Amino acid sequence: MPASLCRSLLQTLALSVGMGLVVGAVFSINGELSVVQFAVNAGVSTLYSLSIGVPANLVFRNLKPRIHGRPVLRQWMIYVGVMLVVILVGTLFTGIVLVLVGLVGSSQMWAVYRQGLMISLAISVPVTIGAVTLSRLHDKLDTSEGERQRALALAVEARLASLESRVRPHFLFNALNSALALIPEDPRRAENLLERLCALLRFSLDAHARLVPLGEELRIVTDYLEIERVRFGDRLRYELDVPEELATFEVPAFAVQTLVENSVKYAVSARKQGAHIRVIARRDNGQLVIDIADDGPGFTGPIWVAGHGLDGLRSRLDALYGDRARLVAPAEAAIGAAVRIEIHA
Length: 345
Prior knowledge:
The chain is 66% helix and 13% strand. The chain is α+β, with helices and mostly antiparallel strands. A hairpin with an 8-residue loop joins strand 8 and strand 9. The protein starts with a helix and ends with a strand.
């Protein structure tokens, strides 16, 4: 027998005995408490509880997964209908047992059955409704917890994706090749490039926090762009226009860098003349607005590709902020491509 089923049956047994004692005490109080009357009433009440509670427990355990996903009203109708059948059968079984042990005469069986049925209905139906309601609330809590765990998993996945993008072989190969080429002619610049590369990789490895100050994010953006400038030279031009007072505003790690990297890939690298990349941040009606734009060819293919680029960042924003943040793509731009991050404080 599965441990969960065994535990559930033991709980049902304990509840049945407890209810039997309570009902036995209630029906035994008639001026003064009779021990014998109490024992009989408690035993009969426990028998009723067990005859109804145990079958209901077993039936509901098997019924719940079968009706999951059906309309709520239909589920309630099924639960109540099944409970009525269990009560009818359980009460009849109890009446037969009472006749067999001699507590009730055979001629009184149906009168006792009707009385027991009314009492069982009065007790079991409200209990069933309450139990089902609690079960549904528990399921909702489990669902909420599952959604929270999914959000955390998405954030972890995004961090891993960010780390993977930082350590892509071709990116490391290009950066190291650029450093090697600089050593003979400009060793100081080569050293600077390697320091920026180390800072970028260290940030990737240490970015356990889902959120980082905007100022820290922009330092990584600058390191990334300076590394790429060694390879692209004057083809890569950029500017960061971010007020100092926004430096402490927290943003998802690599959120801005991911969009800047897209501009390098699709605007700078794709054209001989390169492109100019702009990162502009501001406050607007209590929210942080970050525009990442370039004067390249603009969006030329699908924007939202599942699991990649913009879609991955949008999933991160949803997981971290819900409806308090959004990613706008394409954002309004006179020329080239623009993407906007909006985060409500």
